[in-house]
């Protein structure tokens, strides 16, 4: 009789195990291993292996990375959900993102408190490209400047509601988003499209690894300016810039039911890589 795996089979990665885990992720036979596992691989590259869990300990089939921000990235076999959930109990993760089957299994094995919040879990699609598309950039596309911070924060607040992340941001939450975007702008990681003296679209670069590629996030076009190809052309242009800087590929994730968004990203050269789940606590 097959035994049910327990949390004792979960292991925290150390520097000796890290190369084997990285090799397993890179060699994923079902998809582009590097682009599908960017955040996990970048964590191992960056020396954050103590934040990475594997199951089972002797032959990894599922991996979880708990970032300092409270984001939990998961990948691998859904059978790893129960043991990982047991090990992560009380960890305080706030956002779960990654392979849909493993994410669902982890939630189902978690506490009743988590299950009561499952209405905030939704299907995503991880999309990516290694071949930039030569779409003309939208007029005025540029990196954001410090003076753009309030306008960019407003777009991020709208995206939070429209993307079903929760109710309108409270004042403290909006201030926290503003702090994050201030840092992103200072690093040159936020791009904007101005029209008629206003910022009407934004794109953030959430990850930029010369080894593992970049990931875009926070893509938003103001409602009055939609349907003009701004998203597709901006994504294509930022992707070209990132790949010219040496990124081997670029990814993003989008709600599975966001048809216009998925079509825009496809026009920018992106294709589906994996079914993901996004859950909030």
UniProtKB/TrEMBL annotation:
It holds the Pfam family Acetyltransf_1. GO terms for molecular function: acyltransferase activity, transferring groups other than amino-acyl groups. CDD domains: NAT_SF. Residues 139-281 form the N-acetyltransferase domain. The keyword Transferase applies. Keywords: Acyltransferase, Transferase. InterPro entries: Acyl_CoA_acyltransferase, Bact_Acetyltransf, GNAT_dom. This is GNAT family N-acetyltransferase. It comes from Egibacter rhizosphaerae. The lineage of its organism: Bacteria, Bacillati, Actinomycetota, Nitriliruptoria, Egibacterales.
